[in-house]
Amino acid sequence: MPSSRSGGPLPYLDHLAADSARFRAVLATAPADARVPSCPDWSADDLLWHLAEVQWFWGEIAERGLTDPAAVEAMNDARDERPTDRSGLLAFFDRSSERLHRQLTDLAPTTPLWMWADDKTAGYIARRQAHEALVHRLDAELTVGDRTPLDPRLAADGVDEALRIMRGHEPDEDLSHAPVAGPVTIATVDAMHTWTVTPVRITGSWNGREIDLQRFLVADGPDPSSVAEISGTAADLDCWLWNRPPEGSIARDGDPTAQAAVDAVLSDSID
């Protein structure tokens, strides 16, 4: 993972605090009904509420030490209603953000906690929430037209997380996967890291429902069998994988069918 290859582990909680603070500062003076260009169904207040309730949710799990899905569902059903004005939204965000950071700071990274991903620890929640704050900080900045750079090491780690966890697939005995195109190299031009992704179609029955999805099989490093390459800065690739506008250009080369298969995986929205 990029976070362990250059300069030691990433300070996820520092990034969570900094990007949450920037998010709040940007939205505090934005018009409540300003549209979010990267999430066009949302207003500025919708965006503020979204990150506030996300941080409330994970802060509640961390504070209660929840590991049981039924307890998490009951907790989620009992959440407070959305505040009706900007001052209420900001106050709720402040409480949620402060608690999330405090609770994760107090917990060992190996602490078991409920998580939808395979890594069910406080450490992964810290990682996930650092990237959540980063992406939505960018959304806030795009809303007001005041974009600032993404931290390159955090962005490189974001590429890894987006490829492996948000858009990746680990083989499962209950599901079948079949390649829909040849492997594609994804390369950062500034973070010295490369991945090879193979777009696959996943079918089968999972948790009582039929699955038909497109995802990536992911491996570290280049592969001589790759039929295409997509490259850019870590920040631009992270934005691209989250369907946010890159600041620079993404370079593409090779088999157009494989590139289109990569784009098809990215067509699924992740907020």
TrEMBL record:
UniProt source species: Terrabacter aeriphilus
Domain Mycothiol-dependent maleylpyruvate isomerase metal-binding: 14-140
Pfam families: MDMPI_N
Stored NCBIfam families: maleylpyruvate isomerase family mycothiol-dependent enzyme
Gene Ontology molecular-function annotations: isomerase activity
SUPFAM superfamilies from the UniProt entry: DinB/YfiT-like putative metalloenzymes
Keyword terms: Isomerase
Domain of life the protein comes from: Bacteria
Annotated protein name in UniProt: Maleylpyruvate isomerase family mycothiol-dependent enzyme
Entry annotated with the keyword Isomerase: yes
